[in-house]
Amino acid sequence: MLHYLIERKYQKSIFHHTKEHTTYDLQNLLGTGSYGTAWLMQHRENGKRAVLKYLRPKHRNKERNKQRFLQEIRFLREISHPAVPFVHLDGQVGKIPYYIMDYVEGITFEQAIFQERRKFTVGDALHYGKLLLMIVID
């Protein structure tokens, strides 16, 4: 219960911050993972969709997890490729880092495997791994 209340407190702070200091409006929750929470947003002027992702508050005092999240932002900023979302903005609200990136239509591997019950062969995994490596080392 305490984690839930802390999560709600920081969520409200981040929502208020993005409303007051960005040109995006919140739409709906996309998902929550072990490290972060992602929300769909829409640009007020051009209507383009984006994603707000922030570190879950339960990790705010865990330096290793915070550094991993910040590293994710750095990696996304360093990779300039059409298949990788562009980071428009990043910052912190309290001790919680966040960023806003392009929204990319599609499903995750997790959704494909667990919701759609898709099966991937070793060859599939190697193929997708190779594609990802080509993006990262390009």
Keyword list:
43% helix; 138 residues; 4 helices; alpha+beta; single chain
Structure explained in plain terms:
The longest helix is centred in the N-terminal third of the chain and has 20 residues, at about 1-20. This protein is an alpha+beta fold. It has helices at about 1-20, 65-80, 110-115, 120-135; strands at about 25-30, 35-45, 50-55, 85-95, 95-100. The chain is built from 4 helices and 5 strands. Helices cover about 45% and strands about 30% of the residues. The protein starts with a helix and ends with a helix. Strands 1-2-3-5-4 form a 5-stranded antiparallel beta sheet, with helices on both faces.
Write the layout of secondary structure elements.
Blueprint: H1 2-21, E1 24-32, E2 36-43, E3 49-55, H2 63-78, E4 87-93, E5 96-102, H3 109-115, H4 122-137
Antiparallel strand pairs: 1-2, 2-3, 3-5, 4-5
Concise summary:
By secondary structure, the protein is α+β, with helices and mostly antiparallel strands. Helices cover 43% and strands 28% of the residues. The protein has 4 helices and 5 strands, in the order αβββαββαα.
